[in-house]
Amino acid sequence: REILLEVKNLKKYYPVHAGFFRRKIADVKAVDDISFTLRRGETFGLVGESGCGKSTAGRTITRLTDATDGVVNFNGENLANVNSKKLWEIRKDLQMVFQDPYASLNPKMMVGHLVDEPLRNYTRKSHKKLQAEVMNLLTKVGLREEDYYRYPHEFSGGQRQRIGIARALALQPKLIIADEPVSALDVSIQSQVLNLLKELQDEFHLTYLFIAHDLSVVKHMSDRIGVMYLGNMMEIGGSDSLYEEPLHPYTQSLISAIPQPDPRRKRERIVLQGDVPNPQNPPSGCVFHTRCPFAMDACKVIVPELKEVRPDHRVACLLYDEEVMKDKK
Ligand code: SF4
Ligand code: MG
C-alpha cells in the first residue's frame, strides 16, 4: 500500500535554561531521532508510558510545535519546513483528535458551530448546506441531528469525544492523529468510541496515527505498533507479531503487565526496577539499560539501532546484535 506519512529522524529537543543569564544548560530530548511510516488506510499505534515523547511526536508531526530536526513527508510535502500558507492548506487533510474533548471544544459554541468551524474556514458553502452536512456528520458519529443546537456541557464525556471526532472528520481528512482519544473516558465507554473510530475508518478510508499509553487498546486498534521509551523508538512491528512475540525487553514488560484471562497464554510478569530516568539526563548507550533485566556491560556504551529481526518487525536492542552477542560468549 502507498505510503501516506513518512517520519524520518524526527527530533524535538527543548532547551533547559538556568542561572542569572538563563544560559542553556541542557536539552530535554523529548523525541530523539524516531522514524516510521504510515501506509494509506492503516492504523499505526504509538505506545509508551506518559512522558515517553509519543504526544510530542504527534504534535511535532502536525506542526503544532516545530521539529528540532527531521523530515515529515505527508502527501508529497515535507511538513517540517513548509511555510504557514502551505501548512494551512495541508492541515485540511490532517486533523487531530485530543484526549480531553472538553478542553478542546469551546464551551460557548453550539455543537453545530463547533463541527462546522473547519468547514467555514476552508470552504464556501451556504448556511443551509453547512447545516445539512453537519447534521449528517452528527448522525455518522452516533449523535442526533437535534444535538446541533446544544452546548458541550450538556453532553457526557463519550458524547463530547464524538463531537470532537465529527469536527475532525468535517473536512474529510486523509490522516487523523488521535492522541489518547479514550483515556479520559470510562472504561465502559472506551470500546464504543474505539469501535466508532474503526467504523469511520472503513467508511471514509481514513489513516490513523493512534497514540496511547495502554498497549491493549493500541493492539485492538492498530495494524502496526511502535513502542517508545524516553524519546526513543524501541520496537516497531506488525500488531500481532509485536503482541505475541515482543522482542524488546521493555515491550515484553509492558505486555506481561496486561491481565491475561487465558491461563495458557499467561506470561511471566517482568517487573521493571526503578523509575523512568530524568529525560534531561538520559542514560548512556541504550536508554533503557538502567531498568532492563537483561542489561549487559555493552548496553551502557553502545546505542542500539533499530534493526529488522523478523519480517516487518524491528527492534533496538543489543540482544539481537550478533557482534555484541558473539563477544559475550
Ligand atoms: Fe536491555 Fe541492553 Fe537490550 Fe537495552 S540493549 S534493552 S539494556 S539488553
Ligand atoms: Mg500524552
From TrEMBL:
Any Pfam family hit: oligo_HPY
InterPro entries tied to this protein: AAA+_ATPase, ABC_transp_ATP-bind, ABC_transporter-like_ATP-bd, ABC_transporter-like_CS, Oligopep_ABC_C, P-loop_NTPase
GO biological process, one term: transmembrane transport
ABC transporter domain segment(s): 5-255
PROSITE patterns for this protein: ABC_TRANSPORTER_1 (PS00211), ABC_TRANSPORTER_2 (PS50893)
Domain of life, per lineage: Bacteria
Signal sequence annotation: none
SUPFAM superfamilies in the record: P-loop containing nucleoside triphosphate hydrolases (SSF52540)
Keywords from the named record: ATP-binding, Nucleotide-binding, Transport
GO molecular function: ATP binding; ATP hydrolysis activity
Family: Belongs to the ABC transporter superfamily.
Identification of the protein by name: Peptide ABC transporter substrate-binding protein
Species the sequence originates in: Planococcus lenghuensis
